[in-house]
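FORM 7B: Structural annotation worksheet

SECTION A. Query
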Amino acid sequence: MGTTTPPRTLAEALRARDDASLAGLLRARPDLLSPVPNDITQLATRAGTRASVVRALEHLDRFALQTAEALAVAPDPAPYGTLLSLLTGDGQDDGDHRDDAGAALARELPRALATLREQALVWGEDDRLRLVRTARELLAPSPQHASPTGLGPTVAEATAGMSPGRLQEILAAAGLPATHDPVSAVTALSGLFTDRARMAELLDGAPVEALSVLDRLVWGPPYGEITPHPTPPVRWLRDRGLLLPVATRTVVLPREAALHLRAGRAHRMPEPVAPVVTAAAEREPRAVDAAAAGQALAALGTVDDLVAFWNTGGPAVLRSGGLSVRELKRVASALDTTEPMAAFWVELAYAAGLVASDGETDERYGATPAYDDWVELPAQQRWVRLATAWLAATRTAGLVGGQDAKGRALSALGPDLDRSAAPDVRHRVLALFAALPPGTAPDTATLLARLRWERPLRGASRTELQARQQGTAPAPSSATDTSDLRSRIALWTVNEAELLGITGRGALSSQARALLDGDPAAAAALLAPLLPEPLDHVLLQADLTAVAPGPLERPLAELLAVLADIESKGGATVYRFTPGSVRRALDAGQAASDLHAFLATHSRTPVPQPLTYLIDDVARRHGHLRIGAASAYVRCDDESVLNEILADRRSAALRLRRLAPTVLAAQADPASLLEGLREMGYAPAAETTDGDVLITRAGTRRTPARQAPAPVPEGPPVPDETLLGAAVRAIRAGDTAATVPRKESATVPESREAPSPRGLPRTSAAETLATVQAAAMTGSAVWIGYVNADGAASQRVIAPVRVEGGFVTAYDHTADEVRTYPLHRITGVAELADDATA
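SECTION B. Predicted structure
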């Protein structure tokens, strides 16, 4: 009773785990839950599939991955000491590995091994560690491919198929006794390569050029090409088995020889400890928060400017989806920024659900009704909405301008910008920011190095993954390399966080820390005191400009944006009044008296006389000409004005002709006629069919209600604790049903039926009824085979409660609930063995 039998399979190892450990496995590898496995055996089978193992390997940190790679080149099974030796070396090298590095490896190896065990990539006791077969196939070398460690195949693998005569020649050249048994010959050669003394003696007699060849191959790739007539140094190595042929012109350095040359180390540079993120600068936390608040306010203004630019009709949607390059340039010009930054703001507004396509036949982008609700919120809450949308978005604006796998350009708002890794990278980057003291800006190079250590296989390009399989992966010390997707997303995250006000002067702000902690209300509360109060006044100046010394109250800002053009932004916003801007306000239904009253009410300085004259002059001429729709017509009570228009050469393109003394007809639409006369210096007004002035109000175009784009998930979501507990109970119950001992029915004649392919019990209908009735009377559990309406067969352990009307009602231990089963669908029943519950 005191001894424990070592597990013989992964299923047995998983079966020996407690519920908390099984829940940890399902939490680390949620793909194993789709759907919930029937029992432990099915869970182990699914955990060993190639797709699941690859996904698990991608989530390993560098040292856990290096540990798995070392196990892949170790004997199977391998004791803990062998694994440790592969990582630390045999201690007989040239001293380039310090003692403290070996101590760090020995200290961190149990953690890495525990990670591999938790994720069911490694199983077995410390004296018999086994890497799951699929992971070994992915990471171990073969005669065609090296492992990620740069090691080649073993002597036995490389010499498979070699003629006995050639083996004898190698043994003779290496000074080994001849043997006619190929197995003994391979064993003798392997023993030579693993014997340090004899191997050192062999290499002492090697030509210097041969040692140079070994130096080039020892850390990988271990393969080399030779000519039909190799040089003497190569021939010396080949004759002694230090280079073994794997193809007509390809040779490989066998693993045992490479490990001798490496002093027993599987990796040149093991990395047991995560790189430390260092500080680039330390700033006052209050200055960081203030700078971040300023950026947050600027971000809100930029989104408002974008929507205002699209208010009267946004850009058309490309046939393939997204914005054209020309439209993105127009947005960049309107926002006074670069095209990559314009793409970021467009994608941010889209991710927050503030802009979308209208879905019409001539599809265009525009603001959504959600923008009108968002814009009424306090500034701090609007920022929280934007920041939250950015953190969760899988759309990656940094890809705009690049190309997809087929060489097609990626456009802003296009369909191919989703990268499921983006939210995880953003959260991880900001978590590393948050791990530093408040006010500390991290060094970008060390930040990228830390991210690569945490997930070395995530975001790697196809070329890099193939290089790892070939043993030619780049050295992990290239901290400034940004060729992989995760590193690029990380750099974009650093820049975008500064633009959005998540960080200020390179350091994480206090409000962003609260947001990352999952408390948006606290984040808004921390930001609110740092934002300036909206102003209800401007400063009018004699040069027809108005200065807003801070953010304006929304009604004031909206009307002033119609009445004047924004000339510059910064700490203060400068508005300029022009005839065109005043006419725009009059077109929106404002009267001259309304504009005078508005300016007098909201100006802290007297209204300049030139501005008063400008408004009166434009208002006096506004609507003197009336434009309506026939094709289009112009009417005016002053015949001389119409004569002047007809005489003007610039009106030739409008193709005007007089219909009456006060009416002209044009072969152009009303909008073109309005624009043409305005360019000629007139101030016409459009009118309705009833002859009234047509009032056009800005900002009224909205798309139908649209949902914000849903992030593209990266694999199955991590299950919550309730789901994990239910899944573990279901797996345990199914495993009980599959493995519980049961009595074989002694009443079934041998010649009646062979056992079903699924191993279900087979009994007659009378025997089934009698057995379940007896179990209901005694309250005992039985084992049944059951086929549902879809023809799916399963085996279950049930405790019958009631048997009547052709149905049995029982507590199903497999499903952990009471169910009712038709008796005719039960293939058979068997009693559980007496020691089933012992």
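SECTION C. Observations
The longest strand covers residues 793-804. Residues 285-309 form the longest helix (25 residues).

SECTION D. Sign-off
Analyst initials: ____
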